[in-house]
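cron nightly-structures :: item 1 of 1
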Amino acid sequence: MSFQLDQVVPWGRSFDEYRRMFALTSDDLGRRILGCADGPAAFHATLHERGGAVTSCDPLYRFSAAEIEQRIEDCFPIVLRQAEENASAFCWEPPISDVVSLGRVRRAAMDRFLRDYPRGRAEGRYVAEELPRLSFADRSFHLALCSHFLFLYASLGESFHEQSLRELLRVAGEVRVFPLLGLDGQPPPFLDSIVARLRQEGFGVSVERVPYEFQRGAHSMLRLRHESRVPERA
């Protein structure tokens, strides 16, 4: 199969960034976790190494480690150049204080993913799936995390985003989404209407400030919960 990722930019974040983006506690990390649209992030590899129960899904996982690595190499200088050209759109603070350190942190995260990916893919920890439909059984996970996909790509439309959130609520007791801004740096126009409908249906819905902000203004996550208590890890 030829590698066709012309519209996909693999760009992975670190374990520490995931912890801060989703305000993850030690108890959270002990739950069964689904990372949705994880791409080449290091969160899965690091948590698995520490004994955590984690599954990641992304259409990227149809491809081999070598194919993904080549796409990363192709995209890496382009993304850094765009970051430099749009430097005012970001909050530059340690450990990412400039474009050079951005490249270093992102490269380390993606290298961590690439080391774990072949074995994890063979073990079924990395699964080639994509929203708005997933094959996992109902309530397979305690917690689903979605980083830099839902709401960021507002052009996918309101229906896609709402269907995707409902699907994540089907497979997990709790869902957290970060960030709540589109690529234009503004909240999608349909965010409030989706939130209102889910609240009316009895889901627990909150928008919470988190201890992370790299894209300027992107400092809050959406937390969704079933009305019933989220089950504890067995």
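cron nightly-structures :: done
Residues 17 and 212 are 7 Å apart (CA to CA).
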